[in-house]
Amino acid sequence: LTPDERKEMLESINSPADLRKLPVSELPVLARALRDFMVESVSKTGGHLSSSLGATELAIALHYVFNTPEDAIVWDVGHQAYAHKILTGRRDAMATLRQTDGISGFPKRSESPYDAFGTAHSSTSISAALGMAVADSLNGKKDRWHIAVIGDGSLSGGEALEGLDYAVELDGNLIIIVNDNDMSIAENHGGLYGNLKLLRETNGQAECNLFKAMGLDYIYVDHGNDVGELIEAFQSVKDSKKPVVVHINTLK
């Protein structure tokens, strides 16, 4: 499609319900339109651009597969969430990003029902989504998914590890997406990152697997910027009876 046609496609998406009307074959074009829009928009307002560019297909696939906002997406570092904001009715409001009386640079519950948790930095998404899932379980509600999106940089935080540790005791309704682009604000160090590297190099098949060792189900998506592969992976875990980690390899 031409740039104008891609722009027209993006302008037809005012909610995830509109997104779900598109065939999967057209979603890569939408991803390009989203990136074009984000680059143009953020060049005027300022903001954290690269994280959202790397998570564009992820945002599309999540809203395509899951019944948002009933299914709750909890973004760990809000910098990843610009595409999410655009797809959930805030495309025009991006012109006010991080401006006085404008929209926030991070997910904000008072701003949209699609922002399930207010967040900035970091390592909070697993514990937040886990808390929501436990609350639903206590209330006998079993038909809603809670999805934590956490980057490899945030995964080393103590609260994230505590959330992983406890998650295995939950019956289900929790999906933890590890958005692994091998990059964070500071250089990654420690044994955790050696295991993530090993999992990337073995296409998720390494015998040594931190997540499986903690008792969690696990699947790996090598092409985390392929929206079709992401949709297939998310659809495959929708009927999971226990918490599951979806480890995706993306390019920031």
Write the layout of secondary structure elements.
Blueprint: H1 3-11, H2 16-19, H3 27-45, H4 49-54, H5 56-65, E1 72-75, H6 82-90, H7 125-138, E2 146-151, H8 158-167, E3 174-180, H9 191-201, H10 210-213, E4 217-221, H11 227-237, E5 244-249
Question: How is the largest sheet built, in terms of strand order?
Answer: 1-2-3-5-4
Proportion of residues in helical segments = 40-55%
Mean pLDDT: 93
H-E order: HHHHHEHHEHEHHEHE
How would you classify the helix and strand content by structural class?
A: alpha/beta
Shape: globular
Descriptive report:
A five-stranded parallel β-sheet has the order 1-2-3-5-4, with helices on both faces. Strand 2, helix 8 and strand 3 form a beta-alpha-beta unit. The protein contains eleven helices and five strands. Helix 1 packs across helix 3 and helix 7 runs parallel beside helix 8. With 252 residues, the protein is of the alpha/beta class. The chain is globular.
